[in-house]
Amino acid sequence: MTPPKKQINVRVDSEVYDAIEERAAAAGLDVPDYARQVLADEGNDLRHRFLNAAAHFTGEWGSHFAERFGHPAPAQDETRGQAV
């Protein structure tokens, strides 16, 4: 049996809603589905442990990787669309 669902209502300013709506569209979701996903991700302890472990790992070993394999290429927006 599926546990009962609970509802959360949150009021936001128009500017905040517009930004959320843009992010939802970029993710291919409507605003309620996007908000549901964001809240589920935020409440996911395993995800937070993974992100903390990844941050620790890159802090400890990032320079070793850069020394061995080179630095990552800049993101496209960092190069203004030009090839590097």
Description:
Helices cover 60% and strands 0% of the residues. The chain is an all-alpha fold. Helix 1 crosses helix 2. The termini are far apart. The mean pLDDT is 85.
Q: Short description, anyone?
A:
The chain is built from three helices and no strands. The protein is mostly helical and 84 residues long.
The total count of strands amounts to 0
Q: Biggest β-sheet, characterized?
A: none
Helical amount? 55-70%
- Mean of pLDDT: 85
Topology of helices and strands:
Elements: H1 14-26, H2 31-42, H3 45-69
Helix pairs in contact: 1-2
Key terms:
mainly alpha; 60% helix; 84 residues; single chain
